[in-house]
Design goal:
- By secondary structure, the chain is an alpha+beta fold.
- The protein has two domains: about 1-115, no CATH class; about 125-190, Nucleic acid-binding proteins (OB fold (Dihydrolipoamide Acetyltransferase, E2P)), CATH 2.40.50.140.
- About 45% of the residues lie in helices and about 20% in strands.
- The chain has five helices and five strands; from the N terminus they run H-H-H-H-H-E-E-E-E-E.
- A five-stranded mixed barrel has the order 1-2-3-5-4.
- Strand 4 and strand 5 (about 185-190) form a beta hairpin.
- It starts with a helix and ends with a strand.
C-alpha cells in the first residue's frame, strides 16, 4: 500500500505544477494590487476575532494571522513549487511541499504583521493634549462658558480645541490644558 501511494504521489508532478502556477498568478496579482493601493485582505478566522496589531512583537506568535488571504496564497504557491521540484520523491516530496508551504505561510504572516505595525492613525488622543501649552485663538469666557478656542502645538502638527476656563483669557494668552471635559472640550488654566 505504501509503495502504491508513493508511486501515485511521485507521478503527480503536473498537479503540483498546476497548483504552483495558479498560486503564483494569484500571488503576483495580490502584489500588484498592494502596490497600487487596491489590495484587500480577508480574515479567514471563522470566529471573527481580530488581533490587535499594536501589540505584536517577535515573540507574540498568537498575534500573527496565519489564516489571512495572503498567508494562504503563500502556502498554496510554495506547496506547489515544493511539490513540483521534489514530488518525484513520493511521500518525502509531499512532506517537503507541505513544509515549504508552512514556512512561507509563517513568514508571510510575520511580514504582514510587521508591516501593520508601521501604520499610524494620526489621531491625537485627549490624554496627549492634557498638560500641553497652547495659545488662545478665540477669547475664552469666564465661568466655563462655551466659545473659546486654543491652538496647541504638537510634534509635526497643530490642533485647535474647544476650551473653557474659570477666568477669562484674551486672544494671544498662553494657557495650559488642565483637563478633558469630554466631547472634545478641555479646561484650561493660566500658564
Amino acid at each position: 500500500m505504501w509503495q502504491e501511494l508513493n508511486e501515485f504521489l511521485a507521478g503527480g508532478r503536473s498537479v503540483y505544477l498546476f497548483i504552483a502556477v495558479t498560486g503564483s498568478v494569484v500571488l503576483a496579482l495580490q502584489f500588484i494590487l498592494s502596490m497600487t493601493g487596491l489590495h484587500a485582505d480577508v480574515d479567514a478566522d471563522p470566529s471573527g476575532i481580530d488581533f490587535d496589531v499594536n501589540t505584536h512583537d517577535v515573540s507574540d506568535v498568537a498575534g500573527l494571522n496565519f489564516f489571512s488571504l495572503k498567508a494562504i496564497i503563500a502556502f498554496i504557491t510554495f506547496f506547489g513549487w515544493g511539490g513540483f521540484f521534489y514530488g518525484h520523491l513520493g511521500i518525502g516530496g509531499l512532506g517537503i511541499a507541505i513544509v515549504s508551504g508552512l514556512v512561507m505561510m509563517v513568514l508571510t504572516a510575520f511580514l504582514v504583521s510587521l508591516m501593520l505595525k508601521l501604520q499610524q492613525s494620526g489621531n491625537i488622543t485627549a490624554e496627549a493634549l492634557v498638560g500641553r501649552h497652547g495659545t488662545v485663538y478665540l477669547t475664552i469666557p469666564a465661568e466655563r462658558a462655551p466659545g473659546g478656542l486654543v491652538t496647541v502645538n504638537l510634534p509635526g502638527c497643530t490642533r485647535q480645541i474647544s476650551a473653557r476656563a474659570d477666568v477669562e483669557f484674551k486672544t494671544g494668552s498662553i494657557v495650559t490644558i488642565a483637563e478633558d471635559l469630554g466631547d472634545g472640550t478641555f479646561l484650561v488654566k493660566s500658564n
